[in-house]
Amino acid sequence: MAAPKHSYVAVSIWMLEAALFDAVCALARLFPIDSVSNFGARIFRALGPVTSAHRVAERNLRIAFPEAAEAEINQLLRAQWTELGRTLAEFLILDRIVADTGRVEVEGAERLAGIAAGGGPVVFVSGHFSSFEVMPAMIIKAGVRCQITYRAMNNPYVDARVRRNRFRYGVRLFAPKGLDGARELMRGLERGESVALMNDQKFNGGVAAPFFGVMAHTAPGPSTFALRFGVPLQPMSVQRTGPGARFKVIAHEPIHLEDTGDRAADVEAGVRRINAFVEERIRARPAEWFWVHKRWPNEVYRR
Question: Tag placement on the chain: N or C end, fewer CB within 10 Å?
Fold first, then answer.
């Protein structure tokens, strides 16, 4: 049976997007690292404010910082577009950044070394801070056997290219889907492998826990895995140290969750601690978080 006409249209659009991605990647690799980063910053600083994502970012900032003056909100909006532009441009050449000694320092490297040497497994947790792709690169570079999760892109052709880009700096990714994905992560933990998950975005049906004083639905997976296997949560973050594409990856103090026998309450306690960790990192460096995602329930935005 012939495929529906719209399927051919969709595939054609996907292929066009993939070709554009290839062209941009090839162009980026012709220029010095900091030039690519600076160009991304300029483009997004100019174009970001005319997109619908700008309104989402502004609303998020007002939810998180209700007492902030108008001038401060505007300054943060400009700064977060600058950071997001740098982050997306840097992803195209992240293998060059990671390979350039001196561009990435690791605070708490001894923790990663201990996990790699048999002190694991752990459940790595983090958020979309600065050039967040630097974190999995450093985890793998430290020799940690880890299932690093991500959300697959809607365009399968671009998704394949994104995965290939990550292969360049040693990261092999796993896109969990539903129960099968969760089981695969659990099998990894059973084998003694760590798992790494982002835990700072909206998860419909997740655990409701405070985030900047407003209840936000959060994925329970990291806390559930940590409790089930009796392993710690290992929080990670990344900061831009500048100028240009220079970073510090931080392996923070591990979080040991209490197993009281009340699994639902223990998972909720874990989610609250993760949200508190993410919020603390954002408050310290608000321009470096991914503000263009609707983090809170829809009714919060309607209000």
Answer: N
CA atoms within 13 A on the CB side of 190: 6
CATH number where 15 lies = 3.40.1130
- Written as six digits, the tokens of 74 are 């505007």
Q: How many domains does the chain have?
A: 1
Helix axes 178-190, 221-229, angle to 10 degrees: 40
User: One digit per residue, pLDDT tens: the chain, 303 residues?
Assistant: 444 455 888 899 999 999 999 999 999 999 999 999 999 999 999 999 999 999 999 999 999 999 999 999 999 999 999 999 999 999 999 999 999 989 999 999 999 999 999 998 999 999 999 999 999 999 999 999 999 888 888 899 999 999 899 998 888 766 676 777 888 899 999 999 999 999 999 999 899 999 999 999 999 999 999 999 999 999 999 999 988 999 999 999 999 999 999 999 999 999 999 999 999 999 999 999 999 999 999 999 987
In the DSSP assignment, the letter for residue 41 is H
Reduced to 3 states, what is the DSSP secondary structure of residue 82? helix
Q: Which domain holds residue 149?
A: 5-302
Query: In sequence order, which ranges of 51-143 are alpha helices (DSSP H)?
Result: 52-64, 70-91, 94-99, 109-114, 134-141
